[in-house]
Amino acid sequence: MKPPPLPETNRKGKGGVMIMINSIMDTRVRQEDGCYQINLKLPKDEYEMIYEGNYSNEIAVDILKYYLEMRGDEGRPKNIVIKQSENPNMLEIQAVLEYVQNEHTDYNHQVNYF
Hints:
- The chain is α+β, with helices and mostly antiparallel strands.
- The chain has one domain.
- It is 28% helix and 28% strand.
- A hairpin with a 5-residue loop joins strand 1 and strand 2.
- Helix 1 packs antiparallel against helix 2.
- The longest helix is centred in the middle third of the chain and has 15 residues.
- It starts with 13 loop residues before the first helix and ends in a 16-residue tail after the last strand.
């Protein structure tokens, strides 16, 4: 499957976005309502090189959606924000992922799960 085209805001640094996507650390916490809190940590220097120090939630939306598409994740993000991480060399993109009316794989309940 061919990767989706990059959003307009990302086209300038297409190669850099791929490097940055490969550098992202992803953590998720399942909430009681079935949604997931997702937290992406990415290198601040790579982000600044690609986006020339322009920090915005719109760019965070583009990065998160592209990241989810590259992983084949069907979650629908909402409440997306970008912020400085506790680690001064990292940035965080935080969001809530909804899996409404689609089957989200729960890897702990698959047939032949060890």
